[in-house]
Task: structure prediction
Amino acid sequence: MSDILCRWLNQELQLTKAVDPKTFAKDFSNGYLIGEVLHKYQLQNDFSMFMKKDTSISKLNNFTRLEPTLQLLGISFDINTVQELMQEKQGVATRLLYQLYISLEKKKRAEISGAMMEIMQPAANSGLHKKEHDIFSDRLHQVVKRDAELKLQKISQHYEKKCQELNDRSVTTHPIQQKRQEEKGMKNIEKVQMCRLKYNGIMPCNQATIVQVPNPPPYTSQLNLKKRRQQQQQLQRRQRQAQTVQAEIAQFETNMKKLVTSGFASSSSGQHIPADFPLDGSIQGCEAPGSGTKLILQSNSKYIQEIRQRLEENAVAREQREKRRNRFLVEQLKAHEDREEARREEQLVKRLTRQTQQEQRLASQLLQIRMQKEVIRENRLFREQQYQQRRERDFQETLEREAALAQQAKLDCAEEIKKELELLNRIAAERVQSRYKKHFKSCKDILEQIVDLATKVGEYRLLTANLIPEKLMREWKELLFSGLPLYEPIKGQQPGYGFSIPLDPVELKKQEILNNQDYDEYINMAGEWAWPEEAGETKLPPTNNNILGHVVSRLRNIVHPPIMEPSSPSFPHFTLKACVLGKFCSGKTTCLAKIAEVHGICVLSADTLIEEALNAYHSGEEVTEQQGEKDTEQLLRSSTSLKSDLGTPEENRDSDIRVRLSTRAMQGAAAEKELRKGNPIPNELLVDIIVEAIRQVPAQSGWILDGFPVDITQAYLLEKALGGSVDVGNIAESSRVNLAADPDPPKPLPPPAPILDLALLLDIPDESVVERAFSQTDTAVDTTSHITDKNLYLAQIPHRITAFQDTWPKLEKWFGEKQKILVRVDASVVEEELYKRVESVLQQVLIQTQEALAASPAGDVLGSEKAPDSSSSASPPPVDQPPALTDEVPGHTESDSIPKNPPESASPCPGSSSWVYVDEPLPPEISEFLCPHWDTVCDSYVNNIKTVMQQLRSQSTIITHHLFNIREEFKHYLVRPDSKQELVSQWQKNFNSIPDDMREDEDTKAELHLRLDELRENLWDISDKCKDQDEQERASFMCDSWLEDHTAVLINHHSMLMQVELDRFQETLCILRVYYFSMCEQVLPEPPSDFACIPLLSIPKIRDQDESAEPADTSVCSQMDDGEEKGKTKLVLLLPRHPDSSGRVSKLKDQGQTEPVQPPHEKLVSDYEEALRAISKLVSAEAHQGETTEQKEKPQEKERPTASANKTKKGKQSEKKQKGPPSPPPAPSPAPAEDKKAEKTHDQEVRNKIHKEYAAVLEHEENAAKMRIALIKGHGLAIVQTLQSRAEQVFSSMEKWLEAHYLAEMKSIDQLTEVVRHHIEAGAKLQFELVLRYTDFYLNGDHHMVASQAPPPRPPPLEKPTRSTPTITQLELLHQQLCNAGPSGLMSSCEFSSMLRDITSVNMGRNTLPEPWINKNETQLMEIVSMLMDNDELVDWRRFLLSAALPWPFPSLTQLLVVLRRFKAADTGNTGYISREQYLQTELWFPSESVQPIPEDPSEPLPYDRLANLRKFFFELFADHSFSPPQLDYVSMLQYFAADPNPGQGFIRALSVVLGQHLKHSSTGHLVKSMPSIAEATELHSSELDGECKEEETLCASSSSLVEPEVSIPALLAVICHKIPKMKDGSPFPPGCLSQEEQTELLVQIFTELGYKSENCVPFSVLSEHPLIQGMMETATQYQLVNIHRVLLAHEGKGEANNVTVS
Result:
C-alpha cells in the first residue's frame, strides 16, 4: 500500500517533495503536502495561504484550512487525528492518505467539482459542518502548543536526560536484580542436572564415565566484584550530590523566610532591604516600599512553588524512568540468560558427544538429518506461502475485475435511468404543453367572447346612444357564460323573418338558451316580466296548483306505474374493505403480501383473479347441478357482461358441460373469448370477476384490492356492483314542460355511504419508480437471462407512469372529494418503513369500523336487511282494485264519525297539506287518453311561449336597427349637395372682373354692396328651400306607417301570449272536467265545439330593405298554426285545435268586416277584457252545470224513498186481508236497505268532495290565468309606450339636427358676407376661392373659418419631489399610519423601528416615501431611531415627522413669542385651544402665502406653494382630533418648534414659550451660533438674519435689565412632563419614566433646597444653577432638533445631506 501511495504522490501528482514510505509520518506532520494534494484536485483554493514550515503556527494554519475540505470529501478528521499527525505516529498519515486516495479517485470518476459538491450538500449538513469547523478551530488552538513552550519543553527534557544519565552512573545494581541473578544461577544448576539425567538415559549401555562440569572461571567473579564496587561508588556520589542540593534548597528557604519577615518589618517601619542580601539578581538592589514589596514577595513565593512543583514532577518522572529502566534491564537479563543457556547446552552437547567417534558421527548425522528436515520444512512453508500469495493475488484480481464490472454496470444502469428520466421529463413537458395549449385556447376563446361583448355594447351604444338594457345584458352574459359566440353569422336569413333556411346548430343552441331564459323570466315574473309598478300592488307569481299536480301525478302513475329496481346483491359483513393504488413499482404487492401474511386479510389482484378464472375454464371447474343453477341465475342477474356470451337456451341445449361450469369458469371463458379477439377485457367483466372473488371471501374478515380500480369507469362500476350508488352530478334539471308539479314528491334518498372503507395511495416520485424498476430488472437478470423480456419491461415504464398520471386526477376527485376515504402515504422509503406506515393506516380504519359498528344498534342492521321486503310491500295497488277513500290515508280512519255538515273552520282547504285528495277509480281508457293529452298541452304551451319570446327579441332588434337607419338617412339627407356654391363662384368671378381703378370709387362700392345683399338674399332663399325640403323629409318619416306597423306587430305578439294562456286554461278545464266526471260515474259532457279566440291586427308589408320577406307575425303563425292557411283580412286566428277551425275563421272574417278598427292600446285592453270574459264565462258555465246536476240528483233521491214507502203500505194491507194462522217469521237476513243507504251516503260525500275539489282547482287556475294575462297586458302597454317614446325621441332629434343645420348655414353665409365686405371696403380682389360646403365656409378650401375657442383650464399644481424630503401628500400618509399605530404620539423604540422598517421596505414604501428612504440597512434605521429616542426609550413620532418635513423656516425665540401672543389673542375664551379657522387666520413666523411666478404656457400648472400646504399639515400634525371639530393646543405645538440642535438651548426656548417671556442662560452661546447648519440652505439673507439676531439681543438685554423672569413649578412641569399628558390613554409608563406626581415632588425638593416655597417663583438665573436642573437641561433630548436627512443621504456626501435642513 505504501508503494502505491508513493507512486501516486510522486509520479501522478508530482508533489514538490519526494515522499518515501519511511518518512510518511514526518513529511505529512505539518499538513502542507496534504493541502498540495487537494490543490492538485482543485479542491483547496486557498493553498497559497499554506505554510511549509514545521512550526506550530504553520501546523495550526494548515490543519484549520484542511478540515472543511476533508469533511466535504467525507473523511473523518478530528482533533485526535491532528494530534497523531503532528506527533508523527506511525500509520496515521498512511491511513489518512489511503482514505484521501479512495475519495479523490471516486470524485475523479464521477467528474464532480468542488463547487458542485458544495452545492449538492444539504443546507442542514453545511450548517452543521460550519459549526463543527468552528469548534475544531477552537479546540485546535487549545491543543497545539506555541513554539516557545515547545522549546522550553525540549530544554527541560534535555536537562532531565542529563540528570538521568548522572543518576544512572551513581546508582548500583538494584537488590532485586541480585535476587534474580541468584535465582537464574539456581535454575542453571537445575538444568545442568536435568541434562545429566537425559544423558544417562540416552547412553545406558555406555560405560559410566564421570563428567565434571567445570566451575566458572575466577575472572568472572572478579569482574562482578569490580562492577559492584563501581556501582556502590556511583551511588554514594549521587547521594552526596542529593544531600548538597537538599542543603542548598533548605538554605534558600530559610533565606526566603528571612526576606519575608524582613520585608514585612521594613514595610511596617519604612526601612529598605540591605543591598548585600543574598537574593536573586532580579531582586537585589530594588526597594520594596508598600505594595511593591508585596508584589515582589508574591512573585517570589510563586516562583518557589513552581520550583517545588517542578521538583515533585521531576521526582515522579525519575521514579517512572527508574521503573522503565529496571524493566528494560530485567528484559536484557532474561535475554542474556537465554543466550547463556543455549551456549551451555551446546557446550554440554559437545562435551557429551566428544566421548567417542561413533557418538560424534551419530551426532553429526542427527544434526544433518535435523538440518535437512528443517530445510524441507522451510521449503514447504515457502512453497505454501507462494501458493497463498498467488491465491490472494488471483482473488484480489478477481475482486477488482468484479468491482470494475459492477462499477461499469452501475454506470450503465445510471445512464439508462438518466435516459428514462429524460423520456419521462419529455413526456411530462409534452403533457404540460398540451395542457397549456388547451388552457390557452380556452383563455383565447374567453377573451374573444369578452371582446365580442364589449363590441356588442359599443354597437348598441352607437345604434341607440343609450345605456344597455338589463334584459339585453343578461342575454349577452348568458351566451358568454354558455361559451357561445355573440357574432355567429346567420346565412340566408334576416332576424325576425321566415325560417325557410335551416339555422346553424350553434345559432339554434343560442336561440334555445335565450328562449329558456325568457320563458323562466315570464313564468317567475322576474326581470323584464316583473309585475309593473304602474299596475298597483306588486304581485308574486302564481303558486303551484297542488290539486292539478296531484291529478297529473296520479294519471302518470296509472299509465306508467313505477318499476321497482331489483335489490342490490347482498354481501356478508367485512371488517375491512379497501383498495391500494399507486404508480408502477410503488410497493403495493410487496407490502400487501406482508399484511396478508401477518393479519390474515385477503388481497385481491386483478391479474391474479383473471389468471385463476382462465385456469378454471381450462381445467373445466364444475359445481353441482343445484349450485350451478343458483350461480348461473345470480351471475345473469348481477352481471350484464356475460348475458351475450352465454347465449340463448336453444343454443345451449347440446352443451351440458357449460351448464355445469362454475361462475369463475364462465367468467374465464368470456375473458378468453375477448383475449382471442385481441381485445382487452371489458371493465364490466373485470368488475364481475372481482365481485365474484369478494363473494368467496369469508365473513367477518377483510379484503384489499391491489391496484384496482385503474380508472374512474372501473371505480363507478365497482361501486354499483357492490351495492352503492354513483351520483356523477349529471342529474338533469326538472323539465320546464311540467306545468303542474306533484304536491307530494318523493323525498330524495340520503347519499349512501361509500362501499369502500379506505382508498390508500402510495405516493412516489417518478425518479424512484425508474430506479426501482431498474433494480428489479437487475435482480431478475440473475434468475432469467432473457433480454427481450427485460427490454419490454423497461419500455413499459414511461407509458405506465403516464397512464397513471392521466387517470389519477379523476380517481383523486372521486375518492378524495366525494367519498372522502383517500389517504396518502409516502412510499419513497424502505420496505419495512412502508409496511409500518400502511399497517398503521389500516389499523386506524379497522378501529374506526369497529367503533361505528359498536355505536350503531342492532335494529338498524335488521332494518336494513328487511328494507327490500318493505319496499316491495309499499308498491302501489293495481288500477283495477283501488283502495277505499278512508283506507288510503291512515290519518283519516274516523271519517265516518264526522257529522254531515261540519263547521267550515274544521274542514281543510282543498289543495292544502291536510287535504285528502279524491282518488276514485277511473276507467283505463280515460287515463290513457288524458295523460298524453296533458303532455301535449304542456309541450304546446311551452313551445308557443318560447316562439313568441323569440319573435319579441327579433322585433326589438329590428326596431333598434330601423331607428338607427332613420337617423343616419336623415343625417345624410341634410348634407345633400345644393346650388349655393355655383352661385357664389359666379358672383366671385363677376366681382374679380371689376377693374382695380374702379374699386376705390364710392359708387362702385355701393353697387358691390347691393350685389352682395342680393347674393345673400339668394343664398338665404336656397337655405329656406332646403329647410322646407328637410321638414318634408322629416314629415315623411313621421307619417310613414312604420311605427303603427311595428306597434301592431308587438300588440299581436302579446295577443298571441294571451291566446296561449287562454288555450292552456281551456285545455286544462277540459282535462279536469273529464277527470272528475269520470270519477263521479256520470255521462261525460260533450267537449265545447267552439274555443274563445283572440283576433289579430292585419299588418301590411313593411317597406324596408326586406320588402319581399313575410311579416314577422305571419311567420309566427306558420310556426304555431300547423299548416293552416292564413287569410288576408285583419283578423287572423292562431292555434286552432279542431278540424272545424276553418268555419270559425270564416265566421270571424264576417265579424271582422263589420267591426271598426281599434287603436293599438285599446286593442290590447280589449283583448285583455275579452280573455277575462271568456275565462269567467267558462268558470260560470262549469259552476252552473254542477248546480244543475245536483238539482237533478235530489228529485231522484226523493222519489226513491216515497216509492219504497208505498210498497210497504201495500204489503201491510195484504197481510191484514189474509186470514188463518200467522206464518212464521222469516229468518233474519242482512238489511239491504241499510247497506244501500250507507253506500248512498258515502257516494254523496264523495261527490260533494269531488265538486269541492273541482271548484277549488278551477278557481286556482282562473286566478293564475287572469294574473298572467294581466301581466301580458301591462308588459305590452309598456313595450308599446317605450317604442313610441323612442320614436318621438328620434323625431325630436331630427328636428334639432334640422334647426342646427339651418343655423349653421346662416352663420356660414354671414361669415362669407363679412369677408366680402372687408374686401369691398379694402378695394381688393378676392384672391382665394370662396367655398360654401354644407354648413362650413372655407377660403380656397384650406382655411376653415371657425370661432376662437376659450383656452383650456390650467392643471392643478403638483409638488415636485425633492431628494429625501417627502411631499405633503406623503407626509399626510405617514401621519395617518403613525396615528393608527400610536394614537398618543409616543411609541416604544422597538415598535417604531419595526414600523420604520416596514415603511422603508420596497413593497410598502415605494409610493409613500422618496427614493433615498427605500431599502435602508439596519444600521441606518437604528441610527435614526437612536437620534429620536429619549432617555426612556420612547419615540415621539411628531418629532420624526418634523424632521422628515425639513427644510422649513426655523423660528427664533422672539418669533415664537410673537406667534404665541397672536394665538392667545385669537383664543378669546382663554381655553388654550384654537380651531382650524382661527389657526389659518393667525400669521406664523413665515408668510402663509408667497408670490409665485405664473408660467406663460397655459397648459403648465401653477407653481406649488409648499409653505402654505406645510402650514395646513402642521395643524393636522399637532391638533387633537378627539374633538369635533379638531382643536389645536398651540402652546404644545410651539414647544415642538422650540427644539434646538443643543438640547439645553431647546429646553430654555420651550420654557420661554410656556412662560411667555424671554429667558437667557449665561453659559450658553447665541442660538444661531449653536447651530452652524441652520445658516445653510436658508431662505433668509444673512443681513436679515443678523438684524433679527440684533433685535433679539436688544430685547433680551432690555428684558433682563428691567425684570428678571421667574419660573414656577407648573411651568417647569409643562416643559419636563411634555410627553406625560400624551400617555393618559391608558398606556403604562416605561420603567425609567417618572410620573407627574414624582416630578412635582422632585421640583418641590429643589425649590426647598434653594430656599423657596413650592408655591413661589424662583428667578431663572438662580434656578439654572442647581445641578438637577442643569442635568435636566443637558439631557432634554425631546427638545433637540434632529436632522434625519444626514443619515438618509450619507452615501451621497455630507454636503448634500447638510443642504436638507431648516431654513
Q: What stands out?
A: The two ends are 85 Å apart (CA to CA). The mean pLDDT is 75. Residues 1439 and 1536 are 7 Å apart (CA to CA).
